[in-house]
Amino acid sequence: MDVRIGIQNSPRELGFESSQTAAEIEQAVAAALSGQSALLKLADEKGSVYVIPAAALAYVEIGSEESRRIGFVA
């Protein structure tokens, strides 16, 4: 799952591939934004964990679950 996170007052976005499903990511973001959790914690495919304060979230983009293509794409 491709995830992009915008952080307030930061010119760059945080982007990574996650092994979590779209529903799991959406649930974690909703919990952080509703105040149930002060932090948004997501893990990528390599095992790294990203912890972002909920107050600093600008946007979260959850991409499609797409398998990697082999070869050249025109």
From TrEMBL:
Pfam families: DUF3107. This is DUF3107 family protein. It comes from the Bacteria. The lineage of its organism: Bacteria, Bacillati, Actinomycetota, Actinomycetes, Micrococcales.
